[in-house]
Amino acid sequence: MRIVPLISSGYDSNAYVLLGERVAVIDTGLSAESMRSRIAGVVEAERVELVLNTHAHIDHCGGNRTFGNAEVLLHELDAEAASSGSYYGTASLFGTGGECKPGRLLKDGARVDLGGEVLEVIHTPGHTPGSICLYLRERGALFSGDTLFAGGSFGRTDLPGGDMRQLVESLRRIAELDIEVLYPGHMEVVEGEEARECAEVACEAAERFL
Ligand SMILES: [Zn+2]
To answer: What's the 131 CA to ligand 1 centre distance in angstroms?
Structure first.
């Protein structure tokens, strides 16, 4: 399976295209217009079978409708924020919207089979109640959404549904994982030593806010 990062600029989120036996996209950015242009040349939008949203903020779900044939997967605790179009207040914050009809609702420990490789769902609340990280265990690859970023920074908790105590617990949990490559929701991808250390660094930094 090939992973193609579509690194964002500005407030848009990163998106990751997973080209395996099944084609999946993790997060879709702020708008369908921007998603269409970013994915052009990587894969035809019609071939995308699965869209996984790491959480229901509009800058991660706004491009879902680019993939009309795909099933949308997100954590059950974020389903209402997506289907209502509120996205925890981020739709009005960004001045944009777009409905999202979640298909399969995920829980901690769920597995998403991409044909050959399996994404493990790790529930990591704090940034939103239903934030998830997606883990490819054999590669040590973690798609961390807005829970963890390069350099050990972490997601904000001051938006509706945010909770710093939960975020610290979530960071502690992912610090136990073997992370060889970190694919965060914003900013650059990191590998090797930096990837291995960033969850621990984030834990220590976040704990100071408790
Ligand atoms: Zn977010």
So the answer is: 9
| 138 CA distance to ligand 1 middle (Å) | 27
- Collect residues with CB below 5 Å from ion ligand 1: 57, 146
How many contiguous H segments (helices) and E segments (strands) does the chain have?
Answer: 6, 12
pLDDT digits (tens, 9 = 90+) for 22-37: 999 999 999 999 999 9
Distance CA 163, CA 130 (A): 11
Q: At 106, which amino acid appears?
A: L
CATH number for the domain that contains residue 201 = 3.60.15.10
Average pLDDT over residues 165-191: 97
d(CA 163, CA 184): 19
pLDDT digits (tens, 9 = 90+) for 59-70: 999 999 999 999
The tally of domains found in the chain comes to 1
Beta carbons of 33 and 54 less than 8 angstroms apart: no
CA of 94 to the centre of ligand 1 (A): 12
pTM of the model: 0.97
State which H helix or E strand residue 194 sits in.
helix 192-207
Residue 14 DSSP class? P
Full residue range of the structural domain in which residue 25 is found: 2-207
DSSP three-state, residue 204: helix
- Determine the distance separating the centroid of ligand 1 and the alpha carbon of 159, expressed in angstroms: 9
Question: Is 150 within 8 Å of 202 (Cβ atoms)?
Answer: no
Residue with the bigger pLDDT between 55 and 9: it is 55
